Amino acid sequence: MLELKNVSFSVEDAEIIEDISFTLEDNRFLVITGPNGGGKSTLARLIMGIEKPTGGRIIFNGQDITGLGITERARLGIGYAFQNPPRFKGLTVRGLLSLAHGSDLPEDACCEYLTNVGLCSMEYLNRDVDSSLSGGEVKRIEIATLMAKNLGLAMFDEPEAGIDLWSFKMLVESFRSMSKGRHTSVILISHQERIMELADEVLVVANGKIRSYGTRDEILPKLMGEFDEDCAYAHSS
Amino acid sequence: MLDNVVKSLLKSVADIGDIPVEGAYNIRMDGAGAGRRSTENVVIETKADKPGIDIFVKPFTKNERVHIPVVITKTGLSDTVYNDFFIGEGADVTIVAGCGIHNSGCDSARHDGIHRFFIGKGARLKYVEKHYGEGEGTGERVLNPTTVVDMDENSVCEMETVQIRGVDSTVRETSAALGAGAKLIVTERLMTHGRQTARSNMEVQLNGEGASAQIVSRSVARDSSEQVFYPKAVGNSGCKAHVQCDSIIMDGARIRSIPEISANHPDANIVHEAAIGKINGEQMIKLQTLGLTEAEAETVIIDGFLK
Ligand SMILES: Nc1ncnc2c1ncn2[C@@H]1O[C@H](COP(=O)(O)OP(=O)(O)O)[C@@H](O)[C@H]1O
Ligand SMILES: [Mg+2]
Questions:
Q1: A86 contacts chain B (CB < 8 A)
Q2: Model's pTM, two decimal places?
Q3: Which residue of A42, A48, A70 to mutate against B (max B Cβ within 10 Å)?
């Protein structure tokens, strides 16, 4: 179970996250959505420990993890697939998946994870995760690293970015099955309706604050209207 | 019979733990020959006028490996050696060189290897050279390799040099002259720590039409070590060259990269890229999110970078 209590994050004079509180129970699938620059990635980075909140507490399975570093949180079972994953010279896809798993991963397991994200596994296993891979490929490998481990909380940051339609279907299926099994709970940052439909709960973040929060059935119908307003605002300004 | 210090040095520099079972070899230990074998196609002879050997590879020799490691186990020893390699037309060979120093004393131990390669028409050479130092003594371990490569028409030379630990001071001088259609690929990998210093000067003259060179240097400088790179590519014909120096800087280390490219022909195409920077922060964070500690993440990144 994850609890955020009045979490804030500011740099210099800018408030990036302002007083956000919510609770994610076990076996729940939360989708975070909202306009670009609203603070979604920052929220995930605060939960992972990459950024430290300037106010508030983060509680994971009853333990206050606000002061813990990234490695410690990872070892408690929190994982985060980056919006813009870094590339690594000289590290193979298999090597990266093995690091994620915590020990050498057998070839067939690697293949399964890669297939789940729509990559033809044999072609990728021994390739380096470097600039020879496209943005979409790196992105999918990043998602696969979170499949190599059972986590208490898995967070995916816009996993659909740079992914073709065919792979996208595959991905939605992977997330659907993930929501009943591999990880205890899942946070997915996304703009995709197809992905939002998988959610138990939806949290809309804008300007660093919670704009709305509720079950899928409460939030989704309202969302389209809100996005239209954002667009209208963007066009008129 | 080789003792264990020597065997482990051989393992580190030449990928052999003992006398190689097959192929020609020459082992030099503490300034003198310690074993040699010539084969039908690869003949190794002692030089008459100075320390060192001549290695003759017969034309059209295929798939032979030659090992010529040097080990130094005596403190205070300074060893200079001249080795000449004559690779016959159309031959295809791999030469594994390398120098390991075990210095347990307080005086410096030094090896200066001057290697000259004459690569015949259409011949293909893969040359691997590893440098390694160890020993509990305070004496410096010094290696100054000089490499001169003369490449005839359409020959190919792939040169891989590695110096990852234990060498206190290095000045590496490399020069190459390429004939028409010759292709040179140099991969240099270097890591320095403590107060080590390393300098690498390289000059590649692309003389013949269609010659090409690709030089990749990857280095990591830690602690208060210092590195200087001075690669120079000169195009004297319609040729292609790409020089790439990529360094990771850590702690209080210092790195200087002074690339020089020059062209004396309108069809010369020469590119240089150089970058020095610390370990990428997002890479560190990514690996930590997988449960690695900072130190573990650093090791993974550096090992990959130097792979
Ligand atoms: N460490 C930081 N320093 C300065 N600005 C930041 C920092 N982290 C995030 N921001 C800013 O906060 C805002 C929210 O960013 P982000 O969380 O990436 O939004 P989203 O993921 O919703 O698109 C952006 O304007 C971004 O530039
Ligand atoms: Mg984002």
A1: yes
A2: 0.87
A3: A70
